[in-house]
Structures are given as C-alpha cells and as structure tokens.
Records
---
Amino acid sequence: MVICIFGNTIVKAGKEDEEAQLVDKLKPVLRSMPGFISWKNYTAEDGEVIGLIRFDSRESLDAWAHEGHHLQIQKMAPEISMLAHHSVLFIYRFTQYPEEAVAETHSLDPE
C-alpha cells in the first residue's frame, strides 16, 4: 500500500465554492482509478486541510499523479489555496486487526 499525504494550507477567502466544485469533479475520477483504496480529509482548527489517499501500489499512485483532470486541477491550486503540498509514504508492513481488538485498545473508559 502507498499513502499520499496532501494538503491545502487554508483555502483563500472567497474561493471556498470554487475549491468545493473542483473537489466534486475530481472525486469520481480518483475513485475510478485502478488501485484506488480510499480518500479521507481532516481539517484542523485553523482551517488547514490534510488529505490521505491510499493506493495499492506506487504504479497506481503514479498513474493518478499523471491523470489529465488531476494535472489540470493541480495547476489551478495556487489560485485557490495559499500553499499546496504533498508527501508520499510507503508502507512496508501493514497489519489489520479485528475490530474487537481495536475497540479494546482505544477505549475511553478509565477502568
């Protein structure tokens, strides 16, 4: 699995609708890419957005990086956000635990 961490450091004022429209156009393209696993966004209190996109391989991620719609939208990013960035992480070991085990280790119960 390959994880790409990307972010927009705060969408410029007045560009929120434009950014949302571009994301809506990009979602179905991304989800149709071979090897796509998931896409999630996380927003900090100051408005910074960090996204995680998971692919099954580096080759699948590279295909996404060079996909036509994606390249067009990347060129528009400086008009919409103050800073766009991304990092790629490679997972060499992946362990998936049963839901019961995860629930037990992340319990908020003080006992």
---
Amino acid sequence: MESSYRANPFHNFRHCFCVTQMMYVLLRGCPQLGSALAAEDVAALVTACICHDLDHPGLSNSYQVSLQKPNRFMRIHIFD
C-alpha cells in the first residue's frame, strides 16, 4: 500500500497513517460510535482512511483546474 502513495509534501503515506490512526482513536475513544457501527462499517472506515489519497498528485484543485486536464482528483474540497 505504501508504494501506491507518491512522495509529495502532504498527501503521502505518513498522512494516510495519521488519518487511519485518528479514526482508530475516534472509534476506541467514543464507545457510542464504535457500538453503533457493524464490523463491516468499521472495516470500511479503516479501509477508506488507508486508501483515501492513493496516487494523489499533491496539487491543489485550483491548480488542477488551471491545467484544464480532468483527472480523478478534481473534486470539491472545502479546504483547498
């Protein structure tokens, strides 16, 4: 999995690890959340955390739009 992440400043494997660890902390620290979810839901959440930025080019949406080359990373991010 790590080899599928690019070596860019933010959307890299370390970021993947941090997001996944935070999800774990939320699930373990909020018993109501963990108990409200089925095992399949928890597995889906953890998988989504691990995979959410695979092969991300590390460029902002505005830069991608300025290139006028559509790609799968051109989606709305409220933080870009």
---
Amino acid sequence: MSVIEKLDLLKDSYADEAELDRVLARLLEVVLNQHRLRLARYEQELRGFEARFGMASTAFAARFGAGELGDDLDYFIICTGSQRQTSCPLKPSHSVRCSQS
C-alpha cells in the first residue's frame, strides 16, 4: 500500500475532520519529538568534538578544508554508542559504518 493510499484510508476512517486533525497533530508531535531528541544528541556529540579538538566546528571546518590540520584519522572517527562511524566532518553525508567498536 502506497503512502497516498494509506493517507486516503486514514481520511476515510475519520468522518470528523477535527478528529483526524487531532490524530495527525499527535503523530507529527511524536515525529518532531524524535527529531528534537536526535538533534540534542548531535549537539552533545558536537560539543564533545569541539572540546576534544579545542575549537568551534566552524573554525575546524575552515582549517580542515584549507589543509591546515592534516589527515589524521581522529578527525574522521565519530563514536556513537557501541558503533563507530567513519565520517567526513565537512560532508556528513559521506559516511561509512564499520563493525569495529
């Protein structure tokens, strides 16, 4: 079943538009809370990263991008829980999970 089909089914299940609005508002609040928690965790990890390297992220990104900091692997390893993630600090979308912990 596609997303549109699911939404149509949900719409058809609630004759009262106000009730459907409350259900959707609650669902969106749950999703937003998940994002807020994730953002708080990322901010905490970022503060740890900044403390570890003694500089703000913007300064780190500028210096790293200019080649002033070298290619030390410490700049690429981010630990989250029991997983390690190799990640480019300038382009977080460039990441590779590894099984080492």
---
Amino acid sequence: MVRLPSVFEEMTKDRISPEKLYKRAAARCAQREYCRSEWARKFIEGGLTHADAETLLNRLETEGYIDEARYARAFCPRQNALRSLGALQDATGVGAERELGASRSKQRLRR
C-alpha cells in the first residue's frame, strides 16, 4: 500500500517537527485569536497524527495560547457591546420604565 503525502508535505518536501509547529502556533496565537479547530486542521495538514495534534492543542490551551471563550468574545464585539449597554440601562434604570410599560400592556391583554 502506497502512502500518499499530505498537502503540507508536498509543499515543503520535509516533515516539520511537532515542536517547531508548536512554536509557530504559539507565535501566531500571540498575534490574534485562533480557535482549537483551526489549529487542529493546520496540524493535521502539517503531517501530525491526530494524537500528536491533540497533545499540541492541549499544551496550547494549558499555556493560555488558545481559549475558546476569548476567541468567541473577539468575534462577537457587537453582542458584547449590546450586553454592556443593557447592564448600563439596568444600572441607570432607563430600561426599567420600558419593561414596566411592557408588562402592564401584557396584563391588559390578559384581561
């Protein structure tokens, strides 16, 4: 049975060591947020086995380079802005009058 080289191996003609891939990933994660699945795909394309890729992913998470919650917050700034606006309204009581009016109109509909 002939083993076909991965796409990454065809491009580089060399197999990159797991440690070198880890250092590359850590440097990239320091520049912007990545999710776990992005790195899993890149590691597999780089020629790593699933077990080696999982080991590197766990190491990146343990050392704080990958954080799914932080990744989600980075790509949901509008949702976070709306959430903080709601907290501001709650603190100032601005939204309370609107909610009170809505609950009164619901009570009228029930009658």
